[in-house]
Amino acid sequence: MDWKLLGLSFVVVFLAELGDKSQLAAITLSGNCQHPRAIFLGTSSALIFASLLGVLLGEGVGQLLPTQLMKAIAAIGFALLGISFLWAPAEADVE
Description:
Strand content: under 5%
Radius of gyration: 19 Å
Largest sheet: none
Low-confidence stretches: none
Order of helices and strands: HHHH
Oligomer: single chain
């Protein structure tokens, strides 16, 4: 097992999930709950299952498409997303 990759993926996902909607849902559910362990187990298994699906989907796409094509698609997608953010009207400007 590649421990550096394991640690890196843990840190990146942990930081990305802090303050995420799944965390807010867990806080909301556990606020008036008598069984916080059930909330923890439910939200933990949901995150693990979603991550498993992402890994399996990524592996499948990685086997179907060449790496260079995947990198190009990702780069173009991020560039288009950035450009759309620049051209989108600010919320204060929308009436």
